[in-house]
Amino acid sequence: MSAGRADGLFWALFREEWRLHADLFGGRRFAAFPAFVTLLAAAALYGLHVVGTPLADSLAGLHALVFVFGLQTGAVAFVSSDALDSLLGDVTLLLSSSRTLPVSERRIYALFLLKDALYYSLLFLAPLALAVAGVGVATGRLDLVVRAPLLLATLAGTFSLGLATTLVGIGLGRRGVVGRVLLAGCVLGVVGALWKGVPVVAYSPYGVFATFDPLRAVVALVTVSGAGVLGWWLFDPDHERRARTTRDRFDALSERLGDPLAARSLLELHRSGGGVVKVVVSTAIVAGVAVALLELVSRVVGEPPAPAIALGAILALTAFTTYNWLTQFDSLEEYRTLPLSVGDVFRAKALGFALLLPVGGAGYLATALYVGVTVVELAVGGVLFLGVSAYLFGVTVLLAGVEPNEFLFDTVLFATFTLCVVVALVPVLVAGLVLPLTATLAAGVVAESLLLGAVGVLALRRAAPRWEARLLHDS
Amino acid sequence: MDENESPAVRLDGVHKRYGEVVALDGLSLSVDRGELFGFLGANGAGKTTTIKLLTGQRTPDAGSVSVLGRDPSDDPVETRRHLGVLPEREDPPSFVTPREYFAFVGRVRDIDEETLDARIDGWTHRFGFRDQLDTLCTDLSRGQRQKVMITASFLHEPDLVFIDEPLANLDPVMQERLKAFLVDYTSEDNTVFLSTHHVDVAEGICSRVGILRDGRLADDRRPDDEDGRLLDAFFDGVRSE
């Protein structure tokens, strides 16, 4: 392929990504998404600054989040084709052009990687860098404005590193036992180096931003490019899994639950990539964030007097991630070829959600025990966890039906959902972090939990007719 | 008119738009019970929209729709209980096996276990996919997934079935078997509403054919009518566009 043709394909891939997102997530409204990202990130960073978090810590966290985003983007694009099919429906991407056109597979994959790096840098990372510059102006840290281009470069490097790491992982994971042993060796090597205090992070893109030095910059650049080339070289786009067979588990599960739809949902969750472990990992991440937040608050304003309340509120956010996993393969359209109503589908999802709720509950319990709370605090926080979980579940179903991932890119939906979360969570979160657990506060928290639970149930009831009408009158 | 005497399908002056796009523009059509009705039309002619209206998945902007004597939008769930539906672009769920998917459909449609097993047996024999019954659907070929979807749409032996391009991805032997089955199925007073753009298929097996053009019924004939070949009628419309 000539350079000109490669250039044309690169921009075609770029345009395709934009149209895909615009088509999936709110049409023209998607154009407002970068501005929304800037505002949200600026508000979050400024808020953290106001409560005493050093900006350096926030920027380290920002790089960590971007790395995880890179990992996830790679996983969705290259591994989870089922998730992609479920999300996009019956679409064909330019990525598969090599099957029908005289284009080398490896070249198109290389262009695809470069396109992802540039696309997400412009759409997500540049708004983040802009948000940091804005916060720099607001807080008198004008050096952050000057360093905004460097920040954009290191965020792009971090994202690309995440993307490349996924490719290396997939490539090794698909190369039999030797590949998997090598993969495990790599993971253990990195973890061991971090454990032993080897300054790995100092030579990452983040390290370059934290303390700029030409040597670090060169090492980081070589690391990111090397990981990209290695991932590209190891990745086999033609990899085909052998057909998997399994014994019938549906009948027994359906019998036990009394709901075939719920049984099917849980089976799909269990058998898809990552299985139920996905739910556990999501909960563990939220639990980790909750504990980190409490430690941060302890450093800034002293030991929170009622941490169980804050933990109950934060861990209830797992309701959203759990529902996301539970609906990963769903589309209301599919069920409408069977004698099933939208209400039947939502009822089944509610049952599946209730059965997975103990995972979030275990996360709450574990963090509460780790932090150390009294039995009364534990009980009050537990009630709050249940109330907020029911509320978030109901609100999510009402707003997004069975496609909660739409929140991620539909600006209006995301803003509405964020508002619903803020209204419910902020009062109890603040109360839990600054007020001692008196009988009055406990009664107030329990009352709010019951109220939120009731709102959740009402939202769920309202969701069925809303979505039924929306589908019927689609025009 | 008694529900059992009414036509299997009737549309009267039906309009449907999607934004600026007119999908159906006063479509009127009637299909009697026991017919194998071929619904022909070019891409985007409105065939899929028509099926969505008839199966209670959408409501018309204007006009009336009747399926087995009832308006599907009055009670879509109850209507679909009596219908089989094979959408054009739908796969079975990825992470269940065909056996589990049939069990799921059986439960949703209240088919007793013994009857269900017998029917699954018949279909796996007809389509030769007994060996794939316990394979995850995501690992099946496109043709095998199509066989699963066809089987699922006939499991409850409905009085009326809407099938959209059922022969897609099937090999020639399986295509012939399915065509023979469809003819046989309608001989027992069941109705098949076959949406396709394969004129030869419609000509070969359908008892009557309607040609949809610009959201209206442009032609309605029996394949053996003497006023010209079906293929000519179909292409006449395409040429005139």
Helix content of chain A: over 70%
Radius of gyration of chain B: 18 Å
Q: Order of helices and strands of chain B, N to C?
A: EEEHEHEHHHEHEHEEH
* Discrete helix count of chain B: 8
Portion of residues in helices of chain B?
25-40%
The value of Rg of chain A in angstroms is: 24 Å
CATH level-1 class of the largest domain in chain B? Alpha Beta
Number of domains of chain A: 2
Kindly report the average pLDDT value of chain B. Answer: 89
Number of helices of chain A: 20
Q: What is the ordering of alpha helices and beta strands of chain A? A: HHHHHHHHHHHHHHHHHHHH
Main sheet characteristics of chain B: 6 strands, mixed
Q: N- to C-terminal separation of chain A?
A: 44 Å
Integer average pLDDT of chain A = 85
Secondary-structure-based class of chain B equals alpha/beta
Strand proportion of chain A, as a percent range, falls in under 5%
Report the structural category of chain A. Answer: mainly alpha
List keywords for this structure.
heterodimer, A: 475 residues, mainly alpha, 0% strand, globular, B: 241 residues, alpha/beta, Rossmann fold, 2 domains, six-stranded mixed sheet, three-stranded antiparallel sheet, 9 strands, 25% strand, ATP-binding (chain B), P-loop_NTPase (chain B), AAA+_ATPase (chain B), nucleotide-binding (chain B)
In short:
The complex is a heterodimer of chains A (475) and B (241). Chain A has 475 residues and is mostly helical.
Task: Describe this protein's structure.
The complex is a heterodimer of chains A (475) and B (241). Chain A is mainly alpha-helical and 475 residues long. Chain A has 2 domains: 1-241, no CATH class; 258-475, no CATH class. Helix content of chain A is 77%, strand content 0%. Chain A contains 20 helices and no strands. In chain A, helix 2 crosses helix 5. Chain A starts with a helix and ends with a helix. Chain B is α/β, with parallel strands linked by helices and 241 residues long. Chain B folds into 2 domains: 1-82 and 160-241, Rossmann fold (3-Layer(aba) Sandwich), CATH 3.40.50.300; 89-157, no CATH class. Helix content of chain B is 36%, strand content 25%. In chain B, the strands form 2 sheets. In chain B, strands 5-6-7-3-8-9 form a 6-stranded mixed beta sheet, with helices on both faces. In chain B, strands 2-1-4 form a 3-stranded antiparallel beta sheet. Chain B is globular, with a radius of gyration of 18 Å. The model of chain B has no long low-confidence stretch (mean pLDDT 89).
